[in-house]
């Protein structure tokens, strides 16, 4: 399942407010600057720091 490009352009890391990289294989949005990966569940990005995985 791919993420809508329009949505991806508008989402930013809630910690650093920097753009995110979409990792389609892992179904995550990666914030390189924060060192976090936010999961995408059922096509919906979960932008909660508590749910993010440390890189």
TrEMBL record:
GO CC field: cytosol
InterPro entries on file: Trm112-like
Coiled coil regions, renumbered to chain: none
Highest rank taxon of the organism: Bacteria
PANTHER family in the cross-refs: PROTEIN PREY, MITOCHONDRIAL, ZGC:162634
HAMAP family associated with the record: UPF0434
Family classification: Belongs to the UPF0434 family.
Protein name: UPF0434 protein GGR48_001888
Species the sequence originates in: Sphingomonas pseudosanguinis
């Amino acid at each position: 399942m791919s993420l809508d490009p329009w949505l991806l352009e508008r989402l930013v890391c809630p910690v650093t407010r920097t753009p995110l990289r979409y990792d389609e294989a892992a179904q995550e949005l990666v914030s390189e600057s924060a060192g976090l990966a936010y999961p995408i569940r059922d096509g919906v990005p979960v932008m909660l720091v508590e749910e993010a995985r440390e890189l």
